[in-house]
Amino acid sequence: MTGIAIRVDGLTKVYGSVRAVDDVTFSAEPGRITGFLGPNGAGKSTTLRMLLGLVRPDAGTARFNGRAYRDLPNATATVGAVVDLAAAHPATTARGHLRTYAALGGHPATRVAEVITTTGIDGFADRRVGGYSTGMKQRLALATALLGEPRVLVLDEPSNGLDPAGIVWLRNFLRDFAAAGRTVLISSHLLTEVQHSVDDVVLINNGRIAWAGPLTEVTAAGGTLEETFLSITQEGALR
Ligand SMILES: Nc1ncnc2c1ncn2[C@@H]1O[C@H](COP(=O)(O)OP(=O)(O)OP(=O)(O)O)[C@@H](O)[C@H]1O
């Protein structure tokens, strides 16, 4: 299986007087988990939305093995993404939602039961989504992203709302996913939590890349990710 690298180059987005994303350049490699990390409002979601073609950049490019998301022949079979938990209609069930998205993406209906099992949502797959907790919605969103057996996962704050067991489960799941030569890009504002989950780190602050490199470079220097971030940005505290 060929690996897919993500390359973001000079990506920029300006909202009025706010440079939400300012000349952002980084890569995420196959076989590795890349953490896209920074405080609230740093520009993580806007960057991921540009990568997925949901927001139009003012400058720069974001590509999967050289192709923009919109130019991928069968996008949902290549890239699985979770950037919005509100995608499922509250009156539908997880199973109904997954059946619809399997049909829309041209994926076999048999994938529905498979992703329900993979993401551990069997216990509530036939309940209405409107009653789900944030953690349950996270799992459903991940299940939806996995329908096309993608080779890349792009997840915005995937551990939001997950309980400790869910966080450990997600960590192991992503580890196995990457170990098969696939690419994982996850954003988070919780630096301490992802310290155990990522191979490579891209730190973003005020729309600009503050540091990027393997996690081992951070830990070799003896510090934690949070300490490194604070020493780079010289800020008092993470918001
Ligand atoms: N549609 C928009 N209109 C105006 N400003 C926006 C818009 N989207 C994002 N911004 C601004 O761009 C900046 C970056 O926001 P973004 O959501 O990308 O940050 P983030 O790192 O994902 O934060 P969080 O961790 O809180 O999700 C913020 O100042 C935000 O207010």
Give an overview in words.
Keywords: ATP-binding, Nucleotide-binding, Transport. This is ABC-2 type transport system ATP-binding protein. One of its GO terms (molecular function) is ATP binding. Belongs to the ABC transporter superfamily. InterPro entries: AAA+_ATPase, ABC_transporter-like_ATP-bd, P-loop_NTPase. The protein has a six-stranded mixed beta sheet, sandwiched between helices. A three-stranded antiparallel beta sheet has the order 2-1-4, covered by helices on one side. It has a domain at 6-85 and 152-233: Rossmann fold. Helix 3 packs across helix 4 (110-118). It is of the alpha/beta class. It has helices at residues 44-51, 75-78, 94-105, 110-118, 134-146, 164-179, 191-194, 215-220, 225-233, and strands spanning 6-15, 18-28, 33-37, 59-64, 79-82, 152-156, 183-188, 200-205, 208-214. It is built from nine helices and nine strands. Helix content is 34%, strand content 25%. It is globular, with a radius of gyration of 18 Å. The structure holds adenosine-5'-triphosphate (ATP). The site of adenosine-5'-triphosphate has 12 residues, from strand 2 and helix 1.
